[in-house]
């Protein structure tokens, strides 16, 4: 007798949680490293980081479904077609404001970028249906008619949802959003961090992360609060005195004539 394969069986869920925990930790570090323009090949994920992020995945999954259910209930009186458009606009706002905060952009620039990105969606999915389906009465009916016309040509997403069902689709959306959130969190942490681990032996370098038996360090200018494109791998046995130094928020050095980063320490 053959057993039906269950996509969300208990064993698969238990195996997926630590895998997602590792992925979330990696994406967070990726956002942190990319801010300082450090090679991603030096990213190492510790076991305790995987465990902590596994807990965050479980908590985030519950929170995601609570928020999704709240939004769904809040939009109970809205037509399905208009609800789909609002979801897209919320996602665009999440991305634009997230990346804007990471790169420390003024709120005015974030608003301009949001306007540039959101305008095509508003025009195509809201304004254009009001004109193209003007013969239909009711705002929601016009949007629904345009959406129905678009669905005559099924997109890849529509076919996947139809075949797999809504639950797997929501899981994929959760992983995608949580990955973006983790990347943004890593970049935001790098952008806002003011205290850095330093050493007496390398006062002009900050110790970013431990890599094998070495420290991945990045050259900084304490006076101008800028980081260079130069990095070093410093053996751990050459560092004896550590300190937690308040350097302030670091930004990339605008004019750096020094040679690119070195792959090994001295």
UniProtKB/TrEMBL annotation:
Tell me which domain of life the UniProt entry assigns to the organism this sequence originates from. Bacteria
Keywords annotated in UniProt: Membrane, Transmembrane, Transmembrane helix
Residue ranges of the TM segments: 12-30, 50-72, 84-103, 166-185
Provide the protein name: Uncharacterized protein
UniProt source species: Thalassotalea castellviae
What's the source species' lineage? Bacteria, Pseudomonadati, Pseudomonadota, Gammaproteobacteria, Alteromonadales
